[in-house]
Amino acid sequence: MKILYVTSEANPFAASGGLGDVMGALPAAVAAVEGNECEVIMPLYDIMKAQYRERLELVLDMSFNLSWRHTGASVYRLTENGVNYYFVENHYYFERGRLYGEYDDAERFAFFSRAVVEYMLHSGNIPDILHANDWQTAPAIIYLKTEYSHIEALKKVKTVYTIHNIEYQGKFGSQLLSEVFGLDPIYRGVVDFDGCINLMKGAIVTSDFITTVSPNYARELEYDFFAFGLSSIIKAASHKMRGVINGIDYGYFSPETGGDIYFPYNTRNYKSGKAKNKAALQAEVGLPQIPDVPLAVMITRFASQKGIDLVLHIMDELLSENVQVIVLGTGEKEYEDAFRAMEARHPNFKALIKFDRVISKKMYAGADIFLMPSKSEPCGLAQMIACSYGTIPIVRSVGGLYDSIKNYGEEGANGFRFDNYNAHELLFTIKDALELYKNPKKWNALTASAKKSNFTWENSAKEYISIYNNLV
Ligand code: ADP
Question: 3-state DSSP call for residue 49?
Answer without folding.
Answer: coil
